[in-house]
Write a structure and sequence with these properties.
273 residues, eight-stranded antiparallel sheet
Length: 273
């Protein structure tokens, strides 16, 4: 796990063994928080137009930004994650510059969603008959545990949309294709949170522009019981509805936008996986 990262305004403190023991004796006290009290970080691919680039002096387009910790991972080297949960959703957005910057509605597969029509000019799926121009955007949510190079673990959310939907489907296929041999000698399908993957970024382009997108490769099965326990606990918390996601304006999520002012974002024409 040699992924390097740069941290904005990060400070390191040396803690003596005696003080560390005091901390451990009171482990968890005062941190009994509800899901609404904690922000789940988004991991975002930075683009050249991103406002955060002005704040992060050493960041470059294609690097990956943590929305809560302000950490920046170098896109060429990436980081290791354990995928814990996946959700396919359709987010309803007001036009950019209008509204609160949060989704108007979030629909899950199977919900009674409004009908839409795709606009050939910008390839957005606009809600039929909506006077304010709201549109739906298919978004794949990947809940992960990030394995830092120092061995610490942090939870986060990666939202994929547009051209990155095909990356999401590929990742899901990689997860679903894992098989292992059990103690009885028979094959079985391990849980989503049984394997680690390295996430990096790669430069992409089409006729409408260029951007940086995700590149996902399999690292291998988890060999550390503590990592597995953390990933399983996170997956269980999501399944129980104990994890809250606070979505922000859609320009903050997924892959960076193509460098072409005439096109808001690239499109993905594949059938949903």
């Amino acid at each position: 796990m040699a992924a390097k990262k740069e941290v904005a305004q990060k400070e390191e403190y040396a803690v003596s063994t005696d003080v560390l023991g005091l901390f451990e004796a009171d482990a968890g006290r005062g941190i009994q928080l509800d899901a609404e009290d904690v922000a789940l970080p988004f991991l975002k691919v930075l683009s050249r137009q991103d406002a955060k680039m002005d704040e992060l002096e050493t960041a470059r387009a294609g690097d990956i930004y943590n929305s809560v910790t302000n950490e920046v991972y170098k896109g060429a080297e990436g980081f290791v994650v354990v995928p814990c949960h996946y959700a396919r959703q359709f987010l309803e957005w007001a036009p950019r510059g209008v509204g609160t910057g949060s989704p108007v509605n979030i629909y899950n597969v199977g919900d009674n969603m409004p009908t839409t029509s795709r606009d050939a000019a910008d390839n957005k799926d606009y809600i039929d008959g909506h006077e304010d121009g709201h549109y739906l955007e298919e978004t794949h949510q990947h809940y992960v545990v990030v394995i830092e190079e120092d061995g610490t673990m942090n939870t986060a959310l990666i939202s994929m949309k547009s051209t990155q939907l095909k990356k999401s489907r590929k990742w899901n296929s990689m997860v679903a294709s894992r098989t292992m041999i059990g103690k009885n000698g028979l094959p079985f399908q391990p849980p989503r949170y049984s394997h680690m993957y390295r996430l990096k970024t790669t430069h992409e382009k089409n006729s409408k522009g260029d951007w940086h997108g995700w590149e996902i490769t399999l690292e291998g099965p988890i060999t550390d019981a503590a990592i597995f326990a953390t990933a399983k606990q996170f997956a269980d918390s999501i399944s129980k509805g104990e994890v809250t996601v606070k979505h922000v304006d859609e320009s903050f999520q997924g892959a960076s936008m193509p460098q072409n002012d005439a096109v808001e974002e690239p499109t993905d024409d594949e059938t949903p996986w």
